[in-house]
Design brief:
alpha+beta, 12 helices, 67% helix, elongated
Length: 328
């Protein structure tokens, strides 16, 4: 496989990623507007029976009043995640900083690879786990980090380990870690907002709408409420799929960059084969953090349901990644 025009592809992916990030607040504002419509519904009696309509003036006024608060909350949420994401990831994975005197072999590998491509050396963290995996994280030079498990350092050869480290360094060079962390934050916000709104709608119709239940229009209100929740779930689903697709593309790009950096694509292919046999980590229970790893720390697809779930995977097929690398 020949990686011609890889920088052009990286630039295009980064532009698409920026568009995706800008799309998240728009989705949140649209969700807010839909739920303003729900609570703007009014039921009244007419000669023909009971009718349900929307007080659009109240809906628009409520949305205009709440929109700045929604944007502000999202901004504060993002700022908190931006400031403390490194600590959050360390807590979720159980990682700690690795000192040079503990393992000069790893430090020399990272330093040599960084010098070969002219990039600043990131921090190095370690996870005390016998299983094999690694990931890169961070959003700027102060927080860029490459994290390795003790298992991957003990099992892989020097050439294979260099291929893995080069893969993670490529994620940092391509600004993949920054985009992924921001997208993780926004998807987390959407998930939380969806949960809060769904519970609010449910409580309103179960406990706050006692009089409505006795009216003919009550059924329509309930149906609209259910439809709104379903629409929000679909919005979250589509945003998640978009994030996953971007992540899959970036894994291929990182494989290509790692192969170019080490001039040894088969070593990275061999490393991926070994990691795929034992990628799981006991300390990682969060899906948003798990997607950062070079191979998702979960089970390999074995049956139809696993294959169906693979459409939600943040990583492409390991077999496909190995096949492409071995084409050199």
């Amino acid at each position: 496989m020949q990686y011609v025009g890889i920088q052009t592809q990286i630039n295009r992916n980064n532009r698409n990623s920026i568009f995706l990030i800008l799309m998240f607040p728009c989705i949140i504002l649209c969700m807010l507007w839909v739920f303003c419509i729900i609570f703007g519904l009014q039921t009244h009696e007419t000669y023909q029976g009971t009718e349900t309509n929307v007080d659009w003036t109240m809906v628009n006024e409520t949305w205009i009043g709440m929109a700045p608060w929604a944007v502000g909350i999202v901004g504060i949420w993002l700022l908190i995640a931006y400031t403390f994401h490194s600590q959050m990831i360390q807590s979720a994975t159980g990682s700690r900083p690795l000192e040079r005197r503990e393992n000069p072999r790893i430090y020399n590998m990272v330093e040599n690879l960084c010098m070969s491509c002219g990039m600043d050396m990131p921090k190095i963290n370690i996870i005390n786990d016998p299983q094999l995996n690694a990931f890169a994280s961070g959003i700027n030079k102060k927080t860029y980090t490459v994290t390795l498990t003790t298992g991957i350092m003990d099992v892989l050869s020097d050439e294979e380990l260099e291929g893995v480290i080069a893969h993670e360094l490529t994620h940092i060079r391509n600004r993949d870690t920054k985009v992924l962390i921001i997208s993780i934050v926004f998807v987390g916000i959407l998930s939380t907002v969806l949960s809060i709104i769904s519970q609010t709608v449910l409580r309103t119709f179960l406990y706050g709408g006692g009089n409505r239940k006795n009216e003919k229009g009550g059924g329509a209100i309930v149906l609209i409420g259910i439809a709104a929740v379903i629409c929000s779930a679909i919005a979250y689903f589509l945003v998640s799929l978009t994030r996953f697709a971007i992540s899959r593309k970036r894994e291929f790009m990182a494989d290509a960059g790692g192969a170019e950096m080490t001039r040894n694509p088969r070593a990275l292919a061999s490393a991926l084969r070994k990691i795929s046999a034992d990628p799981g980590l006991r300390n990682v229970g969060r899906e948003d953090v798990a997607q950062l790893f070079i191979i998702h720390p979960g089970k390999t697809a074995k049956n139809f349901m696993d294959m169906l779930n693979s459409m939600f995977s943040t990583h492409p097929s390991t077999e496909e990644r190995i096949r492409i690398l071995e084409q050199f």
